[in-house]
């Protein structure tokens, strides 16, 4: 298997996860993660461990009517994909957006680890 083919396959896995997020399809989204995958913050706080917990944790977020991710930049190094995204969210304080740095490790056809850094929270002015 060529390095180019492997890189394309890794990108397809992360693309499928990204697409499922915007479709708010929790099953499809979680199916891109390994059974023993871990999601954590950049500071090492574990957000979810295992595919079923990962799927359970995303269900509330997928209820947000304005939820949408936009990919600003992607860099791929071997089996690591680094996405810079802006996420529109229905936050407790109102409609807003956050930027996210998402670092995905892909092994054996699944995301085995996701590390996330959230920054630059902004609120969208609803006044016209």
Summarize the structure.
This protein has 128 residues and is an alpha+beta fold.
Plain-language structure description:
The protein has 128 residues and is of the alpha+beta class. The protein has one domain: Nuclear Transport Factor 2, Chain: A, CATH 3.10.450. 29% of the residues lie in helices and 49% in strands. A six-stranded mixed β-sheet has the order 2-1-6-5-4-3. It is globular, with a radius of gyration of 15 Å.
What topology emerges from the helices and strands here?
Elements: H1 3-23, H2 26-30, E1 33-41, E2 46-49, H3 51-61, E3 68-77, E4 80-91, E5 94-107, E6 110-123
Parallel strand pairs: 1-6
Antiparallel strand pairs: 1-2, 3-4, 4-5, 5-6
| CATH fold-level assignment | Nuclear Transport Factor 2, Chain: A
Class from helix and strand fractions: alpha+beta
CATH architecture: Roll
Text of the CATH class: Alpha Beta
Which strands sit side by side, in order, in the main sheet? 2-1-6-5-4-3
Distance between the termini: 55 Å
**Largest sheet data:** 6 strands, mixed
List its salient traits.
alpha+beta, 3 helices, Nuclear Transport Factor 2, Chain: A
């Amino acid at each position: 298997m060529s390095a180019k083919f492997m890189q394309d396959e890794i990108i397809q896995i992360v693309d499928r996860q990204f697409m499922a997020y915007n479709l708010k399809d929790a099953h499809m989204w979680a199916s891109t993660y390994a059974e023993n995958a871990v999601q954590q913050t950049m500071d090492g706080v574990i957000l979810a461990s295992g595919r079923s917990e990962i799927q359970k944790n995303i269900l509330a977020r997928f209820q947000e009517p304005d939820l949408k991710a936009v990919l600003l930049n992607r860099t791929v190094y071997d089996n690591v994909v680094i996405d810079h995204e802006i996420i529109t969210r229905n936050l407790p304080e109102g409609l807003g957006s956050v930027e996210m740095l998402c670092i995905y490790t892909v092994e054996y056809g699944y995301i085995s680890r996701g590390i996330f850094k959230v920054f630059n929270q902004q609120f969208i002015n609803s006044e016209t």
